[in-house]
Write a structure and sequence with these properties.
The protein is mainly β and about 800 residues long. Helices cover about 5% and strands about 50% of the residues. The strands form 9 sheets. The chain has a 22-stranded antiparallel beta barrel.
């Protein structure tokens, strides 16, 4: 049998298995490994020992429908069954299952808080950047079905329900997925509408968080036939996550300064009585998704879809150094309301024997926030005497309290037209065109209540600082991959992407007139952005280039695949909002990778990949003067590692899955940071990190292992038990050793989740305990201003630094009940 015939036969076998699993399973408690549909008929009342699950895992990462084991890419595919078994609700739930993925979470110290603020990294491609609105674009792309949902400040955090699978593609995916996939891609694939069948499912959950409150979830979907060639699928969810961080009562004593800068000896009191609250970081998430499938004829299908979500997060998700467990002391109200929707259209059809796909989308996102920024005012008052500048119209000193009111709106549209040749031919082609435009309207008011009218930014009431800017990032591309079977067992692939980016930043940032080195005094034009007094920044940068992917795949039999890949990814350049710094250039990641995939009986497999990555012209961001983020292309790094996953089914009903990654990323040259872009050649520059120093945010070791057993408890009831352990090793918080000493490393941690459940007819119930041993895993650390100030590098002073550590959710005990219909 030729490789093409084997591929065709395996595709038919996968299709038959999917259809068979559809007839024997239902959403919410499907026993299939990757069920994307639900049965029209209820499951039989009499329970029997679960059938051996030897189904192939089908993915679409290469823009074709293929078996996971036939794709020469390192992919973690989390299927419907796994998502449901492990009760995955959001990004952080599935991120810990992907060994090669790491992230930095917002959650305290004046940053955007909680869910929806995660910066994602693959294989250690991270420099510790703060992901400010005027900083680098993400290096990892996130897709919902065919459409990119990565915004300038990170990806959307979608509630995970009625999802076919999550595909995590490690390594550069620049040819097929473009600029936002320099280091990897995450794809969330929804279950599509199905013609001719009416069915659905609903789940409710109640949970209790240790040291916190009660949470609950309600979610449901229904698939409805509208006519013989039209079907609809509607999904809805409402979730409340209980808080567990206490904002404890406290005061800060600040020195009162005269206008000339001399302390008067009196003190000013900053009190948080109005904001102190236990368990104040609760989150409410609700949303819906609706899709239509319209078969125009045998060859053409149109699928419009709209999805929207509102997420309201209160408080901070970080505990404060120097206080008790799960405690912080903030002096202003803190909240983030993240509202977004995406309208998408996918058109699929045939022209001659080519499959044609158009995928277009429009997304709107509005993030309103109130964040505490009192640390900034406090430390600069006490260490630098800035309190001399804070007085009211009567000349009296005001408490230098500070908060940030944010109103950030995003608009994003993307369009892709793609052509795919038949998969059963010896020569196969995927080619297309891509266009994307992202706009971020940045609005941030830094307020000090009671400030004198001559000190505030014109047009505002209490703003000591104002940011009103419009950022636009445009991407154009033509891409293609060509595969050729040299022999029935040997295939070569060559791919490339021509890209062009055109990015701009215009508006105002800074202080009022006659104060500071930025602000009104630097304006050179009237206002170009609504709400700004004038324009002190208007810059644009553009460039074009080409990235490639070369792959050689050897498949001596149906069970073994070996491959080698040489690929490249890129990230566009952008604008530094401090005008004295030039735009930063693109950075590039070159990947050399070899891998093997071996399939066992009953759908089990063992996959392993080893890689070396060279990261050149690294985009690195740091906090500069006035707390402004500055991005420079400095240095290079080399990252090497190994990742593997093992899936075994040693007996009927028993599944064991383990994934692990080892990653070692270090600088390839000394790291200096300067304005003139002369690297470390100038002996007057400070050496911030040396060749061989580790890259931050990624542990050398990360892994997870889960085991699940399903059996017939009685003739009418099936039962299951499972456990999962996840581990993440020690990580550096910052690239610069001196700054990392201020933060301290992120400590290693392991978490254990356990659950037990039963299934009877259309009903299922699961009792679970997440984070069984109540571990406080350190997810990220943050600070409100320059580390040398708010971090208190002076040691045992009367002030003490304020470092915020986002920790994992405490032990959570819950009960989930579901029903199909």
């Amino acid at each position: 049998m030729t490789q093409r015939n084997r591929r065709q036969a395996r595709g038919h076998r996968a299709s038959l298995l999917l259809l068979a699993s559809t007839a024997l399973s239902f959403p919410g408690m499907a026993l299939a490994q990757d069920s994307t549909t639900a049965p029209a008929e209820p499951a039989p009342a009499a329970a029997t020992p679960p059938a051996e699950n030897d189904e192939e895992i089908v993915i679409t990462a290469t823009r074709r429908t293929e078996n996971l084991q036939d794709v020469p890419i390192a992919i973690t595919a989390i299927t419907t069954k796994t998502l449901e078994d492990l009760k995955v609700d959001d990004f952080r739930d599935y991120a810990r299952l992907v060994p090669s993925l790491s992230y930095k979470s917002g959650g305290g110290g004046g940053s955007a808080d909680g869910p929806g603020t995660n910066n994602v990294y693959f294989r250690g491609v991270a420099s510790g950047e703060n992901a400010n609105h005027s900083a680098s674009l993400p290096s990892v792309g996130t897709y919902l079905d065919e459409q990119p949902i990565t915004t300038i400040s990170g990806a959307l955090d979608i509630h995970v329900f009625d999802i076919a699978r999550v595909e995590a593609l490690a390594g550069p995916q620049g040819t097929l997925y473009g600029a936002s996939s320099q280091a990897g891609t995450v794809r969330i694939i929804t279950n599509p509408p199905e013609l001719g069948r009416t069915y659905g499912a609903a789940n409710v959950e109640l949970n209790k968080v240790a040291h916190g409150g009660w949470g609950y979830t309600g979610e449901a979907f229904v698939n409805l036939p509208v006519s013989a060639n039209v079907a609809a699928r509607v999904v809805g969810w409402y979730r409340r996550d209980a808080g567990y961080i206490d904002n404890i009562r406290g005061q800060l004593e600040l020195t009162e300064y005269e206008q000339l800068g001399d302390p008067t000896g009196d003190t000013l009191i900053l009190d948080n009585e109005d904001f102190a609250e236990d368990d104040y970081n609760d989150v409410t998430t609700y949303g819906a998704r609706a899709a239509l499938k319209i078969d125009l004829n045998d060859n053409w299908t149109v699928t419009p879809q709209i999805v929207g979500q509102v997420q309201k997060a209160d408080g901070s998700f970080a505990e404060e150094r120097g206080l008790g467990k799960l405690e912080t002391m903030q002096f202003n109200k803190e909240r983030v309301e993240d509202k977004w929707f995406q309208a998408a259209l996918t058109v699929e059809g045939k022209i001659a024997n080519f499959d044609v796909t158009y995928a277009g989308s429009y997304m709107k996102r509005d993030v309103e926030s109130e964040l505490d920024y009192s640390d900034y005012a406090f430390f600069y008052n006490e260490l630098s005497g800035y309190g001399a500048y804070w007085y009211d119209d009567a000349g009296n000193a005001v408490v230098p309290n500070q908060r940030v009111i944010g109103d950030d709106t995003y608009a994003k549209q993307s369009h892709e037209l793609r052509f795919t040749s038949p998969s059963d031919k010896r020569l196969r082609l995927v080619a297309g065109l891509f266009y994307q435009r992202q706009q971020h309207n940045i609005g941030q008011d830094y307020e000090i209540p009671g400030l004198a009218s001559n000190l505030v930014v014109p047009g505002t009431d209490t703003n000591v600082w104002l940011t009103k800017q419009r950022r636009v990032d445009r991407d154009y591309a033509a891409f293609g991959e060509l595969s050729y079977d040299f022999t029935p067992t040997l295939t070569g692939t060559i791919g490339g992407r021509w890209y062009k980016f055109d990015n701009s930043l215009v508006g105002f940032f800074g202080f009022s007139a006659d104060y500071g080195s930025t602000g009104v005094d630097q304006c050179f034009a009237p206002s170009k952005v609504d709400g700004s007094p004038c324009t002190n920044l208007d810059k644009r940068t553009k460039d074009s280039g080409f990235v490639h992917r070369l792959n050689l795949t050897y498949k001596p039999n149906d069970d073994l695949l070996l491959y080698g890949t040489w690929s490249r990814g890129f990230r566009p350049g952008g604008i530094n909002r401090r005008g004295t710094f030039p735009p930063y250039k693109p950075d590039f990641l070159t990947n050399y990778e070899v891998g093997a995939k071996y399939s066992f009986a009953r759908g089990a497999h063992f996959n392993v990949a080893a890689y070396i990555q060279d990261w050149d012209d690294m985009q690195v961001s740091v906090l500069g003067e006035n707390g402004l983020t500055v991005v420079r292309n400095v240095g290079s790094a080399r990252i090497w590692g190994v990742e593997a996953d093992l899936l075994l089914r040693p007996a009927p009903g028993l599944t064991w899955a383990t994934g692990v990654a080892y990653n070692n990323g270090t600088l390839s040259e000394d790291f200096c940071f300067d304005q003139e872009d002369v690297g470390c050649d100038d002996s007057d520059l400070d050496l911030l990190a040396e060749e061989g120093d580790r890259l931050p945010l990624t542990a050398r070791w990360k892994g997870s292992s889960r085991i699940r057993y399903e059996w017939a408890l009685t003739p009418a009831i099936d039962a299951n038990v499972q456990g999962i352990v996840t581990y993440e090793g020690r990580r550096q918080r910052d690239l610069r050793p001196g700054v990392n000493d201020i933060y301290g490393n992120l400590k290693p941690y392991a978490e254990v989740d356990v659950s037990a459940g039963i299934v009877r007819d259309q009903w299922n119930a699961d009792l679970f305990v997440n984070n069984l041993f109540d571990v406080r895993g350190q997810l990220s650390k943050s600070i409100q201003c320059n580390e040398a100030v708010c971090g208190d590098p002076f040691g045992d002073t009367a002030i003490g630094g304020k470092i915020y550590t986002v920790v994992s959710r405490p032990r959570t005990i819950g009960l989930r009940i579901g029903r199909k219909f």
